Amino acid sequence: MRTKPPTAARTSRNVALELGFRRCAQDLRGLLLTTPLAWLMVGWLCWDRVPMERLGGWLGGFAVSWMIALLLLTLLLRLPSPQRRRHGWLLHGAAALDGMAWAAMVPLLMPDKGANALLPWLIVLLCGGAAVTAPIYASYVRAHFSYLAGLFGVLLGHALWQYQDLAHLSITLGLILFLVLLTWHIRRIGHSAEEALRQQLKNTAQNERLAGLLRVARRDAETDALTGLANRRLLDSTLSSRWQVGGLNDRRERPLSVLMLDLDHFKRVNDTHGHDVGDQILKAFAARTSQQLRKPDLFARYGGEEFTVLLPGTDAPKALVIAERVRAAIAGMPLIAEPPVPITVSIGVAQRKPNESTEALLARADVALYAAKQGGRNRVMLAE
Ligand SMILES: Nc1nc2c(ncn2[C@@H]2O[C@H](COP(=O)(O)OP(=O)(O)OP(=O)(O)O)[C@@H](O)[C@H]2O)c(=O)[nH]1
Fold first, then answer.
1. Domain range spanning residue 131?
2. What lines the ligand 1 site, CB under 6 Å?
3. Hey, which bits of the chain come out as E strands?
4. At 92, is the secondary structure helix, strand, or coil?
């Protein structure tokens, strides 16, 4: 037999049903824990008015079914969530037992002759109990049918048995009518609740998808596609948001140094080995240089074969050491194995002066880089 593939709608319906099922089981257990209060009320109402053996019989029967129902719900809620709905009979059983126990009031506690003053109170209690219980099933209407089956089973059985007693028959039929109306309303509320839950799940899934897309878009907007380094946009925004004159880092007088790096004779590499090899070298350069830097340093592709490193908290002497380390790492070994093109890098270093704009700082580092090129390349130069 071929099984239908799960559609998104079916999956969301299943998740909504699963959530509603769990909530219904939890709420029903919570309600059952308050049931002994209702027993006290019934006991107080019936005291001296209903024969003790009947009251005791009803209370004893209810207490046993109440404990079994609580046990079933506790077992159900302990199951891991994927298995819970497969053991739905535990919830249905608990609901049916609850319904039967309440309905047993009619044969056991309702006076034989309907004119008794106790009767309206007991009917109010029974209807009130059913009305209080009903909203619990709005999150999982199917269990309400089990509750009703329990109630109806006892009430109808009693109606058939007592069909000659008109007073009892009319009480039973009235109760059944009340429960039918209640069920009709609960079904409507249940459908709305399920729809709301499904909508909520859909919105959550959509929000997560959008947040993921936004994260990817933001990362792409700030990343250089070839090397995976920060791009010029991120470099500029970091400089203007954190290092502008009067900004937080500036006021704290944290030193900032920058390195401007440019691969030497890169045009020759492209011309001799082709653009693809040039691209591989740029990637390998980015990777090897990154290994020489710390986490807080921002390594960005400034454009073409020119790169920038921001070194926060670093003064010029330390920046010179780092630049020299990078230069040696690049010159020490070809960046790619095939073809093993020897490549070097020239680096200009500048430390920010007090009240110097970030544009002026980059310009000074660029001048130092130009001086390194002029000085013969494969070297580090400090800006004035
Ligand atoms: N393969 C590749 N080449 C690039 C990329 N961006 C820029 N280039 C090349 O880098 C080369 C830069 O050449 P030039 O500015 O003349 O500098 P150079 O040859 O490195 O010489 P000097 O900087 O003076 O040492 C050009 O040929 C550009 O086409 C890129 O993304 N991939």
1. 8-206
2. 226, 262-268, 270, 275, 278-279, 282, 304-305, 373, 377
3. 256-263, 298-303, 306-312, 345-351, 380-382
4. helix
Which tens digit of pLDDT belongs to each residue from 59-88?
A: 999 999 999 999 999 999 998 877 787 888
Residue 3 pLDDT > 90: no
Reported pTM = 0.59
Protein residue whose Cα sits closest to atom 21 of ligand 1 = 265
Q: Which residues contact 212 (CB under 8 A, 6 or more apart)?
A: none
Task: Give me the chain's average pLDDT, please.
Answer: 88
User: What is the tens place of the pLDDT at every residue in 199-216?
Assistant: 888 888 899 999 999 999
The answer to whether residues 126 and 162 belong to one domain is yes
User: Same domain for 249 and 202?
Assistant: no
The domain that holds 299 is classified in CATH as 3.30.70.270
Q: What is the largest CA-CA distance in the chain?
A: 118
Rg of the chain on CA atoms, in Å? 40
ipTM computed for the complex: 0.96
Counting the structural domains of the chain, the total is 2
Tell me which residue has its CA closest to atom 3 in ligand 1: 278
> What Cα–Cα distance (Å) separates residue 230 from each residue in 150, 220, 269, 288, 299?
68, 10, 24, 15, 6
